[in-house]
């Protein structure tokens, strides 16, 4: 089974103060400490996303399939899913405060019709 890391654990490995360099890509955690010096785009670009989710930065750089393949060898585990995900609306976007579901209207009380219940 894959090792699970908390986002906070990954965030500590940001390459600063002698820390290793970890990054997140598509929910997986990578230790790229030994790779940054060999990165064709330079170490700085990776250090900018060290300890963070680098998915967008990696994809936006337009890496070749070869680069994606190289990345795999540095995988050390997976990132833990957030304990309390934000509430989601039907369209998949995070619900804004005040936009939460309204309670359904309550059925008419039987007493209002004098206690008489009609079955038809
Ligand atoms: C550890 C993860 C990474 C690996 C294995 C990796 C690998 C590579 C490789 C093999 C290339 C050469 C071109 C190619 O084959 O696509 C490259 C170029 C490049 N990478 Fe990465 N990369 C990583 C992370 C990143 C990150 C996080 C960024 C952030 C922006 C980045 C930005 C770039 C850029 C801008 C280039 C183009 C450099 C140039 O053509 O001068 N890379 N990378």
Automatic annotation (TrEMBL):
A GO CC annotation given for this chain: membrane
InterPro entries: Cyt_B5-like_heme/steroid-bd, Cyt_B5-like_heme/steroid_sf, Cyt_B5_heme-BS, Cytochrome_b5
Residue ranges of domain Cytochrome b5 heme-binding in the record: 2-80
SUPFAM superfamilies on file: Cytochrome b5-like heme/steroid binding domain
Keyword line: Heme, Iron, Metal-binding
Biased composition (Polar residues): 86-111
SMART domains per record: Cyt-b5
Residue segments, region Disordered: 80-120
One GO MF term attached to the UniProt entry: metal ion binding
Domain of life: Eukaryota
PANTHER family with a match to the protein in the record: CYTOCHROME B5, CYTOCHROME B5 TYPE B
UniProt record similarity statement: Belongs to the cytochrome b5 family.
Protein name per UniProt: Cytochrome b5 heme-binding domain-containing protein
Organism in which the protein naturally occurs: Drosophila virilis (Fruit fly)
């Amino acid at each position: 089974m894959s090792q699970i890391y908390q986002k906070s654990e990954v965030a500590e490995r940001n390459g600063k103060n002698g820390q290793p360099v970890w990054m997140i890509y598509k929910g997986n955690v990578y230790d790229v400490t030994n790779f940054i010096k060999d990165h064709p785009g330079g170490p700085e670009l990776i250090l900018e996303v060290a300890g963070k989710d680098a998915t967008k930065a990696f994809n936006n750089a337009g890496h070749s399939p070869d680069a994606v393949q190289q990345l795999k060898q540095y995988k050390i585990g997976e990132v833990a899913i957030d304990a309390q995900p934000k509430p989601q609306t039907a369209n998949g976007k995070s619900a804004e405060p005040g936009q939460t579901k309204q309670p359904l209207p309550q059925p008419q009380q039987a007493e209002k019709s004098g206690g008489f219940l009609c079955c038809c």
